[in-house]
């Protein structure tokens, strides 16, 4: 254990002083802060894209403005256009997104929209003005048509996890942030592990190390040091996220509550801090996922004879991690889909997918227990397998080990 402690201490100190580690930590913190401010930024963009100028007779534009007020800000109402509108015309009217010319054609309403972004207004205009057209066709007052065309839908969580749909959407945002934090931590630290092992091998330092310590213990100490520095990095990112979220709430609460029709703002307004069990589950799956990936990347690094070959050796290892990110995003919307549940048990995928399910749904206890058992066992098996590869790879130069050498390494004790 003394040799493990010595290697751990040296590796831990080296990683903390590494420029890559420091730069990655700072860039990650900046990225998390930007993500926290993203809903506010989206809300700010939405304000200008919701400004509209209406053109037509006063009665028609007044009725249309009333129908559109939930989604758009009517910045001007004009009786007619003397010429087709230009960008300068839109800029002069509060940087409006479009000019909508309204006219009645018999019992139908026709809209001609001159817009900066073709296709952006048609769905919402057609939906909002449908009640007005029904009024023209039937003679029923617009207020009554509008009230009859709206169906009150109230969603309730059958598992009792969320008070309403808005809080569920907020949880999805939190889940996405946590998954991206896990991904960034694994990505940055795994790459540094590979580079460190490759440098030791190419400089022949590895030969000195394995003459003094068993390769499996050397691998264990390196992974343990990487996990420890990963926790420090994670702590910095979590503190950054908490400060950024609090700043958003304090500085932009008015903007989030008054901006027109912004789903991002609504989700940000209903963000609640993760519960203690959710944080504990995140830590558990962070350790499991980090350990599974770290041992594989360290083993891959031992197979490299030149630093330039790192990308070609480690490239296939990124495939399941990237796949897990995509499945986790799908799990945010459908946490109990059959495929999602299946992937929440599979090693390398489970740390991302199962934690996402924990955040956005109520996961049965037996599924959590089974996922933990499978993935802890997989982490141990991967560590054993990677240790054997590490033992062989460190002493191989110029070529990859042959299948026969791999089999021989697996049989060694």
From TrEMBL:
TM region(s), chain numbering: 20-47, 173-198, 219-244, 279-304, 316-334, 340-360, 372-390
Protein name: ABC transporter permease
GO cellular component: membrane
Key words of the record: Membrane, Transmembrane, Transmembrane helix
Main location: membrane
InterPro entries in UniProt: ABC2_TM
Name of one Pfam family that matches: ABC2_membrane_3
Keyword Phosphoprotein: no
Location of this chain's protein in the cell: Membrane
């Amino acid at each position: 254990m003394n040799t493990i402690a010595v290697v751990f201490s040296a590796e831990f100190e080296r990683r903390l002083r590494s420029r890559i580690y420091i730069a990655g930590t700072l860039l990650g913190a900046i990225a998390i802060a930007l993500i926290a401010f993203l809903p506010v930024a989206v809300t700010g963009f939405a304000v200008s894209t919701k400004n509209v100028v209406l053109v037509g007779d006063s009665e028609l534009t007044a009725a249309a403005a009333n129908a559109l007020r939930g989604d758009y800000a009517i910045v001007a109402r004009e009786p007619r256009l003397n010429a087709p509108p230009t960008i300068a015309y839109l800029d002069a009217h509060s940087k409006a997104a479009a000019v909508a010319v309204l006219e009645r054609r018999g019992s139908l309403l026709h809209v001609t929209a001159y817009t900066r972004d073709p296709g952006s207004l048609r769905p919402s205009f057609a939906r909002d003005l449908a009640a007005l057209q029904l009024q023209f066709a039937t003679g029923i007052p617009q207020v009554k048509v509008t009230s009859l065309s709206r169906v009150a839908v109230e969603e309730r969580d059958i598992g009792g996890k969320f008070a309403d749909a808005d809080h569920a959407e907020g949880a999805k945002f939190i889940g996405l942030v946590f998954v991206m934090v896990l991904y960034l931590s694994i990505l940055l630290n795994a790459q540094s592990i590979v580079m460190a092992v490759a440098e030791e091998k190419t400089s022949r330092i590895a030969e000195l190390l394995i003459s003094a310590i068993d390769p499996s213990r050397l691998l264990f100490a390196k992974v343990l040091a990487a996990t420890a520095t990963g926790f420090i990095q994670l702590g910095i990112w979590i503190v950054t996220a908490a400060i950024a979220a609090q700043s958003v709430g304090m500085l932009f609460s008015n903007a989030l509550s008054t901006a027109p029709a912004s789903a991002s703002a609504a989700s940000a307004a209903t963000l609640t801090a993760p519960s203690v069990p959710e944080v504990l589950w995140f830590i558990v799956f962070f350790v499991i996922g980090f350990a599974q990936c770290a041992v594989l990347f360290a083993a891959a690094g031992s197979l490299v004879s030149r630093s330039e070959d790192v990308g070609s050796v480690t490239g296939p290892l990124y495939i399941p991690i990237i796949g897990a990110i995509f499945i986790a995003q799908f799990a945010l919307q459908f946490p109990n889909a059959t495929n999602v549940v299946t992937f929440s048990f599979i090693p390398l995928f489970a740390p991302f997918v199962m934690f996402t399910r924990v955040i956005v749904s109520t996961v049965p206890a037996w599924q959590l227990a089974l996922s933990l058992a499978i993935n802890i066992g997989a982490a141990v098996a991967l560590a054993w397998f990677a240790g054997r590869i590490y033992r062989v790879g460190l002493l191989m130069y110029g070529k990859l080990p042959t299948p026969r050498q791999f089999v021989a390494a697996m049989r060694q004790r």
